[in-house]
Design a protein that fits this description.
Order of helices and strands: EHEEEEEEEEEEEEEEEEE
CATH topology of the largest domain: Immunoglobulin-like
Shape: elongated
Largest sheet: 7 strands, mixed
Number of helices: 1
Helix content: under 10%
Distance between the termini: 56 Å
CATH architecture of the largest domain: Sandwich
CATH superfamily of the largest domain: Immunoglobulins
Mean pLDDT: 83
CATH class of the largest domain: Mainly Beta
Radius of gyration: 21 Å
Structural class: mainly beta
Number of strands: 18
Strand content: over 45%
């Protein structure tokens, strides 16, 4: 019988490229590497694969994510039902993990992670080699019922940054101001309330131009503090 554990081995919150290409060197792989429940959709599947030669135990945990001071903050969540949450997977095999959202949709976007974790085997390895376990963090988004994207410039201790002050996550590609400054590449995804320092800082200063962010939700005017 599999024994569930909260012990982390190597935590890998992967980009789509790394997981899709198998860039971790891990026997554990998942697809897709980002889940978004569009419209009324409340269920879906996640393919979990064991690319190794031996069987491994796997457990899946759901946490709710928010942005705290400089980092993601995780809270345990019961907003998803998983089937199965714990299972064993033979080497070279894969299986579908089914999930259903049973939480409440709100005016704001809700963000989660599915932590797909290899369960460490008990006892020392037979050949004396180092044994480690892998955890993959899959971002999951439940869209806002009333999306309101918004960004603003912030400054702390003389360091300028940009903050997502809306209720939806944004992928910010570039910052620019027509006729006032050249475009500043960013390439950053921001959760609601997340800040990101700008290095180098925009020149001229934000208050001297009308700045726009090019995002996956269109061009957004950036407000000032």
């Amino acid at each position: 019988m599999l024994k569930a554990t909260r012990r982390f081995g190597v935590l890998l919150c992967l980009s789509a490229f790394m997981a899709g290409a198998g860039g971790t060197g891990s026997p554990l792989a998942v697809s897709p590497v980002y889940i978004k429940l569009d419209g009324p959709q409340d269920h879906g599947t996640l393919l979990v694969a064991n690319n190794g030669e031996t069987s491994i135990g796997i457990e899946v945990e759901v946490v709710r994510t928010a942005w705290g001071p400089g980092r993601e903050v995780y809270q345990p969540s019961t907003d998803f039902v998983l089937s199965p949450p714990v299972f064993r997977l033979a080497g070279g095999k894969s299986r579908l993990l089914r999930f259903r959202y049973v939480g409440t949709r709100t005016a704001a976007e809700n963000s989660y992670r599915f932590f797909v974790r290899q369960i460490p085997e008990e006892g020392p390895p037979a050949d004396g080699t180092l044994r480690f376990a892998i955890t993959l963090g899959i971002p999951v988004t439940v869209p806002a019922m009333a999306p309101h994207p918004a960004l603003k410039f912030v400054e702390h201790a003389g360091i300028r940054g940009i903050k997502n002050v809306g209720n939806v996550s944004l992928s910010v590609k570039t910052l620019g101001s027509a006729g006032c400054a050249s475009e500043l590449p960013l390439g950053k995804r921001l959760l609601p309330e997340q800040e990101h320092p700008l290095a180098p800082a925009p020149t001229p200063a934000p208050r001297e131009c009308n700045w726009l962010a090019r995002t996956d939700r269109g061009d957004i005017a950036i407000s000032r503090e």
